[in-house]
Amino acid sequence: MNSELFATHSTPEDLTKGMHWHIEHTLASSPSKVSDRDRYIAFSTALRDQLAERWMNTQECYTKNHVRRTYYLSLEFLIGRLLGNNAMNLGLYDDCKNALDGTELTWEDMQDMERDPGLGNGGLGRLAACFVDSLATLHLPCIGYGLHYDYGLFRQEIVNGAQVEEPDVWKQEGYPWEFKRPDYAHTVFFGGEIRRMEVDGRLFWKWFPAESVTGMPYDIPVVGFGGQNVNNLRLWSAQACNDFDFQDFNQGSYGEAVDSKVRAENLTKVLYPNDNIDQGKELRLRQQYFFVACSLHDIIRRHLAENGDLHTLPEKVAIQLNDTHPTLVIPELMRILVDDKQFSWDEAWEITRSCVNYTNHTILPEALEKWSVGLFQKVLPRHLQIIFDINSRFLEEVSMKYPGDVEKIRAMSIIQEGNGQAIRMANLAIIGSTHVNGVAQIHSTILKNVIFKNFADMWPEKFTNMTNGITQRRWLLLCNQPLSNLISSRIGTGWITDLTQLRQLEQFLEDDAFLNELMQVKQANKVRLAQYAEKVLGTTLDTNSLFDVQVKRLHEYKRQLMLVLYIIIIYQRMLKNPSLDYPKRSFIFAAKAAPGYAMAKQIIRLIHAVAQTIEETPQVRERLKVVFLPDYRVSLAQVIIPAADLSEQISLAGMEASGTGCMKLMLNGALTIGTLDGANVEMAEEAGEENLFIFGMTAKEVLERKATYSPWDIYHTDPEIRAAIEAIRDNVFCPQQPSSFQGIVQSLLDFGDNYMLLGDLKSYIAAQERVNRLYKTPRAWAQKALLNIARSGKFSSDRTIQQYADEIWHISPIIPE
Predict the structure, then answer these.
(1) Which of 7, 205, 592, 714 is most buried (most C-beta within 10 Å)?
(2) Distance, CA of 395 to CA of 409 (rounded, Å)
(3) Do the Cβ atoms of 548 and 646 come closer than 8 Å?
(4) Radius of gyration of the chain (CA)
(5) Which of the four pLDDT bands, split at 50, 70 and 90, describes residue 31?
(6) Which residues are catalytic?
(7) Which of 477, 506, 476, 471 is nearest to 491 (CA)?
């Protein structure tokens, strides 16, 4: 790759010397005693040294020029491993490989030693990670804010086919990419009471909190491609203000002596504490406020240091809420301005609304966060009061615009009445923001026309669309180097920062030599995945089979269960007709279920049970294979996605906000079988619907059919679907544990099949038949794979971020000298 593209210039010798220096001086080890882990830490630290100066220069440049920054607030940043990614973005990837040639640890082995940081779960966190990569690559000033989780979501193990959650101790052996910043620690308060006060004739409310926690910042540098700009990701860890009570300890109360430490540190132990219990709900609310309070304090501290006056906050600060989790920014900023800085309410509200923007990521009612007023009163009494004040003033505005429309007022209120009052965080986010965006065209349309219609009618200019994207640096250049090398050999490397250049690949659609090379790349990636499956599961994947992949968070609306039903139907067909004309298939699943999500966990058990049954059936197992790869994470995705032939994007239309896994798979040459949902719609527009396998109801048809939909009608009229359900009901896949999957059968039939799997199943089977026909003609398959790659340019996060920068944040690029 052209070295002129990169700001950092180093040699393999520099990196080798740096590693040895850190082995001796940072780790105090000797060459005769050094471990592989020491080598990894030392080499990573040596590479970190290469970006440290650029990092400092970038931050000094931003400060010196008084730039307007974006502050991206997200509870998740699923950044993945950084050693290879940072080396690639710095232009040092080959130098790293050469530096380690002939040493005890190869470059590939060293990258595999890095643990994935436990800082996220799924699409929300991976999107945030792609965004900060693009922001740095596009030279745009940004700071990401999140939480520094000790154990992440969880590490998934599969025991007897069931998910078991284990702590993800991702930084137990050290994490070389972070810097602790105690000088910027902040104290956060909870609980207590509010009192009406008077000073010099001025009446005001004052919060007297009962509890305090320290937020300790950890910084991770985010290097853009080329190494010119290195932005900052700041993560907050919760610590007790007083770690240890000597009085309790001396009196023999040893547990009580550390109670405050345990209670404080619980705030950042795990991502998304189980909220099926009241203590979990309270912990989530405390976690979100801790995150917001620390981040907002840091934003204000920096603004005052650089600009001196909070009146100019909207000129220099653009805060982006990544879903509703950071929505407490709105009442917290109001509290700071009104209570601490003595701004008038109207002035404070104008500043707050001008600074804040909100991205919605879901239309699922259960995912639109609500908090009980009672819980809020206990944890954040002053913020509750501010929210009621915001709501009162807002409802006056609604009443003036829509006089007498009680239903509209009730629907738009922040406070949900009924069986216990609750705070609707999405309503608060909309009311307190300048812009509200969805993340795919269909999703944004549903927000405006259905979910938030009342708000869109009142403020049509507030709502917009920002279709999601992915960074091609990680999801092609790094994770699929054979394909990226093939592409660059034909069209150059410009696509790395301008993904639309992939359109040039269409000139090779009739080039048999190129198509053969493309399929050889796919085959090599399938071999790599098969080797991984053999190592982890001890199972053999036939690399000549079609790799049919569904990898994503386990949720009923994503319809992993529909793929399982299809597998059962094909299995039963093969039992009836051993000579059935059906290409070999390997069905590859990877997914985590939320710890409290019983149905999702049951689906994981069914996947394993079906896999075992097929494996135990000699006349089928040579043609069908089902594998579930545990502990889905970024590094595993980087192995699975390049190997996929078929990408399963089969959510019920109107349910998926966007999805980004579909984009990664498209970019790596997988063909998509999917509904017209989320980003699938725009993928079909870009690639041509004839180059995807589209099936099922549209979002409009789903709404029209919902009122009269009956899964029983389908069960009674379709023999194949009925036989598949009966096989589950009759314990074909769990003969030793009868009734294990009755909950699944009930969800499909007795409870109304909420996500309409049976309604789309026949169309899905027909689409799979089209897949089989095309896969039998390898050249035609290769052409469609190439065309999908060539037309994936729209789905770069660079495009998304440039759109945010131009239309919402109004920030400009700046390159440090």
Answers:
(1) 592
(2) 7
(3) yes
(4) 27
(5) confident
(6) 361, 552-553, 558, 660, 664
(7) 506
For 665, 675, 773, the CA distances from 766, given in Å and listed in that order, are: 22, 13, 11
CA distance 384 to 374: 10
Please give the biggest Cα pair distance in the chain: 92
Residues 6+ apart with CB under 8 A from 184: 217, 298, 301
Q: Taking the C-alpha atoms of 287, 288, 293 and 299 in order, what is their torsion angle to the nearest 10 degrees?
A: 120
CA distance linking residue 728 with residue 726, whole number of Å? 5
Q: Assign 62 to helix, strand or coil.
A: helix
Q: For the chain, what percentages of helix, strand and coil (3-state, to nearest 5) are there? A: 55, 15, 30
d(CA 545, CA 539): 14
* pLDDT (tens digit per residue) in 162-191: 999 999 999 988 999 999 999 999 999 999
655 and 179 in contact (C-beta within 8 Å)? Answer: no
Classify each residue of 326-358 as buried b or exposed e, where b means 16 or more C-beta atoms within 10 Å of its C-beta: bbbbbbbbbbbbbbeeebeeeebbebbbbbbbb
Q: Which two three-digit tokens encode residue 255?
A: 């547990």
Structure tokens at 620: 């089928």
Contacts of 511 (CB under 8 A, 6+ apart): none
Tokens 């994007």 found at: 649
Helices in 1-114 by DSSP H: which ranges? 12-25, 36-64, 83-90, 93-100, 107-113
Report d(CA 780, CA 801) in Å as an integer. Answer: 35
Helix or strand holding residue 154 (H, E): none
Tokens of residue 56, six digits: 């400092």
Structural element, H or E, at residue 542: none
pLDDT at 722 over 80: yes
Torsion, Cα 705 708 714 716, to 10 degrees, reads -170
CA distances from 243 to 18, 148, 213, 594 (A): 37, 19, 10, 31
What angle, 0 to 180 degrees and rounded to 10, lies between the N-to-C axes of helices 560-576 and 757-775? Answer: 60
pLDDT tens-place string over residues 63-96: 999 999 999 999 999 999 999 999 999 999 999 9
181: tokens are: 């910043």
Rounded Cα gap, residues 668 and 650, in angstroms: 19
For the segment 187-200, the average pLDDT, to the nearest whole number, is: 94
Q: Spell out the residues 6+ positions from residue 542 whose beta carbon is closer than 8 angstroms to its own.
A: 530, 584, 586, 625
Res. 256: pLDDT tops 80: no
The secondary structure of 396-457 as a DSSP string is HHHHHHSTT-HHHHHHH-SEE-SSS-EEEHHHHHHHT-SEEEESSHHHHHHIIIIITHHHHH
* Amino acid in the structure at residue 780: A
With CA atoms as reference, report the closest residue to 607 among 581, 622, 627.
627
